TrEMBL record:
Keyword Electron transport annotated: no
Source organism: Hyalella azteca (Amphipod)
Family indicated by similarity: Belongs to the LovG family.
Gene name as annotated: LOC108670656
Protein name according to UniProt: Esterase CG5412
An annotated GO cellular component: nucleus
GO biological process: response to retinoic acid
């Protein structure tokens, strides 16, 4: 008989804008080690290629690295968290378990979500995602020094969830592995690991 208590969570990790799956995997390496007893991580690649800023021809994008993205908010391949738009080109996801900064989509069907530098999409085509309170349990990690997604944007997004925990840290726009964040994240994930183990144990007894 298997040991339900030993089963790990499987967490889907979606990278931020101008990153890719491998870059994200490396950047959260220290955090993954701390969460090793709780979870396994799977990384997926954004569906859109984001060219280097110097090659994009878009004013203000000079010097930005190439990578991958999930949607553009303008026909010229532009995206910014603060940009209001009626245009979208890209990939929509509805079952997300872990989201890095940059991608905010409806997460109604996930067991839980962890959002780092999360924000409400300002694309009008996504407005329906926020018409109703999202029941998915969520942990929102906000950087008080974040210059890309202001902490107020993350707090506003957290208000869309009925079961939300907000964790603030003193850093910027990254996934932290600090005493401010790691303990509450471990506690949050452990809650669902226990629930999965209890469910598996009941199934084995029937």
């Amino acid at each position: 008989m298997s040991n339900p208590a030993g089963r790990k969570l499987r967490i889907l990790c979606l990278h931020g804008y101008r990153q890719d799956a491998e870059t994200f995997r490396r950047r959260i390496g220290a955090l993954r080690k701390k969460l090793n007893s709780l979870a396994e991580f799977e990384f997926v690649e954004g569906s859109l290629e984001v060219v280097a800023g110097d090659e994009s021809g878009i004013p203000g994008e000079e010097g930005r690295a190439p990578g991958r993205g999930w949607w553009f908010s303008r026909e010229d391949g532009f995206f910014r968290a603060t940009h209001h738009s009626d245009y979208q080109r890209g990939f929509e996801v509805r079952n997300i378990v872990f989201i890095n900064s940059g991608l905010q989509i409806c997460v109604t069907y996930a067991r839980f979500v962890v959002l780092v530098s999360g924000f409400k999409s300002r694309c009008s085509l996504h407005a329906a995602f926020y018409e109703h309170v999202i029941p998915t349990p969520s942990l929102h990690v906000c950087g008080l020094a974040d210059q890309i997604v202001d902490v107020s944007m993350s707090e506003d997004f957290a208000a869309c969830f009925s079961d939300a925990i907000i964790v603030r840290h003193s850093g910027g726009h990254f996934v932290p592995c600090t005493p401010e964040v790691t303990p509450p994240l471990i506690e949050f994930l452990a809650r669902f690991k226990r629930a999965v183990a209890e469910h598996a144990q009941k199934n084995e007894q029937t």
